[in-house]
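pasting for the record
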Amino acid sequence: MPLGLVSALRSVDIGLADVAAAESFFTDIWNLRVTARDLGVVYLRGSGADHHLLALHPRARSELVSVTLRATSAEALDRLAEQALAHGGAVVLPRHRVSEPGGGEAVVLRDPQGRILRFVFGDERHVDTTVGKDQPIQLAHAVLNSHDVAAGLPFYENALGMRLSDRTRIMAFVRIPQDGPGDHHSVALADADNDCLNHIAFVMPDVDAVMRGGGRMKDAGYAIEWGPGRHGPGDNAFNYFVGPGGYVIEYTSDIEQVDDNYRVGNPDDWKWPPGRVDQWGISPPPSQVLKHAQRQIAFAPATA
């Protein structure tokens, strides 16, 4: 298994019919900042070093353009392309210079179930990284639906060098190996009858920020569709919402830090008592609005 090819989840590119309205939401309510604009695309950053966390693309309908991870080196980009081909994926764009804001080099891959994954190296980083009181810092994870998790998971392990942290009845959580402890998961595959986006999670400074963010969203007319609560796998606090374009977004914090000594859990390890859906036992189940939204946004066809 290749190790050391990927270092972090960086950003997600999303398509929406009304980019202006989405920009207003993500800056005024969600608390991101515009870091660049280019050819109608708006790039939004958090308080951390990543150049951007979201890129808003004008599209006729909501569709997921790509998920971007950071490679550990320029050579790792070539290795990722080789490994993708060896494990049932495809190379959409071989290693190339990135012309969009953020720069660097990249490869664009398609996994065996059609998801578009970009890997960048040498992209710009921000030096003004003072954490705002209730500002998202970086992305926590992207959860992607899978019509066959057992078939989809090996690509992330064998081609990308990620590690399974936990397998519940409905989800496989995979992490990016680090030299020391790292986030419990950066990507998860959710059992579903489709391969759509499930949700995008943003790291907040602490649990209070997750809660205040929930209050800010409610004040703006966005209901908490699941939460507040604390997950089992990952041990993170959460609040979920349906944002512009129907995208499911999560505020989260306190993600468990694990290393290779972590024992991989199985579904029997993650069973809640009747009536519970989180550790605290206070969260109601996910709303039907949320469940519907988690099945609606598919990956856009890749274009070279």
